[in-house]
């Protein structure tokens, strides 16, 4: 039993905590009800309230039960406070005033001063509670009587009565047999009792003795109908309707006239009352909990009225913040992807085998012709700047998007110009006009002209373009100009090797610095939102705690517990994307020293013509280069779209489940065929666009984009640089493809 009532105490504490969070006004009905029901839950006494309109004889009935004129009675409404009658060894009165003053007197005369209505029929506003102690055996069992002011007189009295009824385990509703169930009584029966879970009610009819015998029978039948229609919850076998002539009963009790007391109905009523209390008192929790359910339901709805708007506001903030973070995260990943791709292409270009293959011949010729500086500026530097710009532009994209650290320019410098020291001229050479003769320069290069110069340049081309597996005796006896050519080739190899090593090192450092640019800081949420999040958590915890306590005492609820709100975990974090680097195949790996040595060795065993190499035609772009251009275009397009989303408040508009549903519907619609145009001309244009892309009408946007990608890779004009006729056809085809794609994207 103690454990059971400990549960009631926990429930009362939970109700009080909820009341505090709701910030209810002290005079509000809900606040008063919560205080009343909480005090009642932990009250060990069984409280019986006598309830009814003024002048119905409530105090008279209680005096008759107590056997004395204990309570004030008069012909006008007198009870001006809720008087609690408790057990005491002698009759005494205790009055607590609002300011905390206690008035404690022997007897009951002090009630005339504090507990009756004044000349203006007003209750005293300075009285907090009135208690009366009597040595009655029924009270000694732990029973308390509550004498309430009459209703239907003044609003403040009605409010007091309504509040006090919630703290009664059993209600005695006094009826006037002369005017049964007035409109006010019927309203109170429904609003003050039934709707608040108060169903342990006994009806007592007074003044029946004042009616004629034939009228008494009619009234009794009407009383039975009233009592039977009320959904009373009393122990089985007990009626909820009794007749007591209160004033005759009191007079009989004061005179000790047992027969008169019996004939007034008092004795029968007292016996029934004591038996009902004897059954209900041990299980008074079952009587009180229905009242708790009614109050708890109001509290839960009030808590939800505070919780849901705050939760919606926080969800809106989280949705906006998460949407913004997600956009930034995607942008960071895309920018990093573009940057990594461009850096990978630059790293691939800087690989020594690639540099040797692409530039060694031309560089060696330029060195032999004393044009190396010009070649370096207009060929090597031009290609380097283009590749450097392709990488750096992604960092400026990142800076524009995230405003983190401003990027530095990528600067890969060139090694010192290669120097060549020529061997001594052969002794059998007479002059420079002989094949194989050469003019010795000043140590950093030389000027060749005529057939000798052509022989050296031709030897460079020969040695680099023919791979000889075996050297015969004739090749071992190289001509002078072949030896000079090998010196140029070796010098360029050393130059490109230094350039490759230095460039790759600088590129690696630059990549590390780029991590500080392609990142963004997730800022701390506003203090206002943090406080609201804490308030929401407190409200939800209290709501869930109340649900748990109600469940412990077997009170059902229509509400579900709230899930714990997620904490704002993005505070002061930096996001740096780390996608996989662009993979370089082993043959592109610049770090394999053996392959460099093999390449260098091979360059020394290449042989062919003695004439200068013919002018090179512009190479046609490979399909993978067109694919790379298309990928870069897609990345730029996607990042531009994200920037627009970042600027648009609509990008964050996810404040409710309905808006989420709308977003999903929009997404679904975007993958379906767009709405048909209004005019026939527009219909024909769209149909033609589908036909150009090789698609069926009403195909999804995803399929349109994929078809466009395929056609770009197939018909990009750059693929046909050296085929003028095909290039012209490709340009015309791409014009139609672009026009069709634009038409289907805009509709």
Per-chain topology:
Layout: H1 2-22, H2 29-41, E1 46-51, H3 58-66, E2 83-87, E3 92-97, E4 102-106, H4 111-114, E5 127-134, H5 137-140, E6 143-147, H6 155-165, E7 170-176, H7 183-193, E8 201-206, H8 213-229, E9 241-243, H9 246-255, H10 258-263, H11 266-280, H12 284-350, H13 352-368, H14 372-402, H15 450-465, H16 473-476, H17 480-514, E10 520-522, H18 527-552, E11 573-575, H19 593-603, H20 623-647, H21 657-670, H22 680-692, H23 701-715, H24 724-746
Describe the protein's architecture and organization.
The protein is an alpha/beta fold and 747 residues long. It contains 24 helices and 11 strands. The protein has helices at residues 2-22, 29-41, 58-66, 111-114, 137-140, 155-165, 183-193, 213-229, 246-255, 258-263, 266-280, 284-350, 352-368, 372-402, 450-465, 473-476, 480-514, 527-552, 593-603, 623-647, 657-670, 680-692, 701-715, 724-746, and strands at 46-51, 83-87, 92-97, 102-106, 127-134, 143-147, 170-176, 201-206, 241-243, 520-522, 573-575. The strands form 2 sheets. Strands 4-3-5-2-6-1-7-8-9 form a 9-stranded mixed sheet, with helices on both faces. Helix 7 (183-193) links the parallel strand 7 and strand 8 (201-206). Helix 13 runs antiparallel to helix 15 (450-465) and helix 23 packs antiparallel against helix 24. The longest helix has 67 residues, at 284-350. It is rod-shaped. It starts with a helix and ends with a helix.
């Amino acid at each position: 039993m103690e454990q059971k009532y400990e549960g009631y105490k926990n429930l009362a504490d939970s109700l009080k905590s909820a009341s505090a969070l709701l910030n209810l006004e002290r005079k509000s009905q809900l606040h008063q009800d919560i205080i009343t029901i909480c005090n009642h839950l932990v009250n060990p006494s069984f409280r019986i309230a006598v309830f009814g309109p003024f002048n119905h004889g409530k105090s008279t009935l209680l005096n008759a039960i107590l056997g004395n004129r204990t309570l004030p009675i008069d012909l006008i409404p007198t009870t001006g406070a809720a008087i609690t009658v408790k057990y005491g060894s002698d009759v005494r009165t205790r009055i607590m005033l609002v300011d905390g003053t206690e008035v404690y007197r022997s007897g009951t005369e002090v009630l005339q001063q504090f507990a009756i209505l004044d000349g203006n029929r007003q209750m005293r506003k300075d009285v907090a509670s009135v208690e009366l102690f009597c040595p009655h055996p029924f009270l000694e069992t732990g029973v308390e009587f509550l004498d309430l002011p009459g209703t239907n007189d003044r609003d403040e009295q009605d409010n007091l009565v309504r509040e006090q009824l919630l703290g009664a385990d059993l209600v005695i509703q006094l009826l006037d047999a002369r005017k049964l169930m007035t409109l006010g009584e019927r309203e109170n029966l429904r609003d003050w009792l039934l709707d608040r879970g108060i169903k342990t009610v006994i009806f007592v009819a007074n003044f029946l003795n004042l009616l004629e015998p034939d009228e008494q029978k009619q009234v009794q039948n009407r009383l039975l109908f009233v009592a039977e229609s009320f959904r009373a919850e009393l122990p089985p076998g007990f009626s909820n309707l009794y007749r007591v002539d209160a004033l005759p009963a009191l007079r009989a009790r004061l005179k000790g006239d047992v027969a008169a007391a019996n004939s007034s109905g008092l004795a029968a009523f007292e016996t029934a009352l004591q038996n009902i209390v004897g059954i209900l008192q041990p299980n008074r929790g079952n009587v009180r909990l229905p009242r708790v359910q009614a109050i708890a339901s109001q509290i839960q709805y009030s808590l939800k009225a505070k919780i849901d708007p705050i939760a919606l506001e926080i969800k809106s903030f989280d949705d906006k913040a998460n949407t913004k973070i997600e956009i930034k995260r995607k942008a960071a990943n895309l920018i990093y992807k573009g940057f990594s791709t461009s850096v990978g292409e630059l790293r691939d270009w800087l690989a020594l085998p690639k540099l040797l293959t692409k530039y060694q011949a031309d560089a060696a010729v330029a060195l032999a012709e004393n044009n190396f500086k010009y070649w370096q500026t207009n060929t090597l530097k031009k290609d380097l700047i283009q590749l450097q710009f392709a990488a750096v532009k992604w960092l400026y994209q990142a800076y524009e998007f995230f405003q983190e650290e401003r990027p530095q320019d990528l600067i890969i410098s060139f090694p010192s110009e290669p120097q060549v020291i020529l061997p001594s001229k052969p002794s059998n050479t007479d002059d420079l006009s002989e094949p194989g003769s050469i003019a010795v320069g000043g140590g950093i290069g030389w000027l060749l002209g005529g057939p000798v110069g052509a022989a050296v340049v031709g030897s460079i081309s020969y040695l680099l373009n023919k791979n000889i597996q075996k050297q015969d005796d004739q090749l071992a006896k190289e001509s002078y100009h072949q030896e000079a050519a090998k010196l140029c080739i070796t010098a360029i190899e050393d130059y490109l090797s230094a350039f490759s090593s230095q460039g790759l090192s600088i590129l690696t450092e630059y990549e590390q610095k780029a991590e500080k640019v392609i990142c963004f800081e997730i800022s701390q949420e506003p203090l206002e939102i943090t406080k609201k999040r804490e308030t929401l958590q407190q409200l939800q915890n209290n709501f869930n705690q109340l649900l748990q306590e109600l469940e412990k005492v077997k009170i059902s609820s229509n509400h579900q517990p709230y899930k714990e709100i997620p904490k704002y975990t993005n505070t002061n974090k930096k996001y740096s994307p780390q996608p996989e680097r662009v993979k370089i195949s082993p043959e592109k790996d610049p770090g394999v020293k053996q392959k460099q040595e093999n390449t260098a060795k091979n360059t020394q065993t290449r042989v062919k013509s003695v004439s200068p190499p013919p002018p090179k035609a512009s190479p046609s772009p490979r399909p993978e280069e067109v694919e790379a251009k298309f990928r870069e275009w897609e990345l730029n397009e996607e990042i531009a779209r994200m920037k627009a989303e970042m600027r648009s408040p609509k990008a964050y508009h996810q404040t409710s489940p309905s808006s989420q549903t709308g977003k999903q519907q929009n997404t679904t619609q975007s993958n379906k065929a767009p709405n048909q145009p209004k005019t026939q001309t527009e219909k024909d244009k769209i149909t033609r666009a589908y036909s150009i892309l090789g698609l069926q009408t009403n195909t999804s946007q995803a399929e349109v984009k994929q078809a466009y990608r395929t056609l770009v890779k197939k018909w990009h004009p750059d693929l046909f640089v050296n085929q003028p006729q095909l290039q012209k056809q490709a340009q015309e085809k791409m014009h139609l493809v672009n026009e069709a794609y634009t038409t289907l994207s805009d509709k």
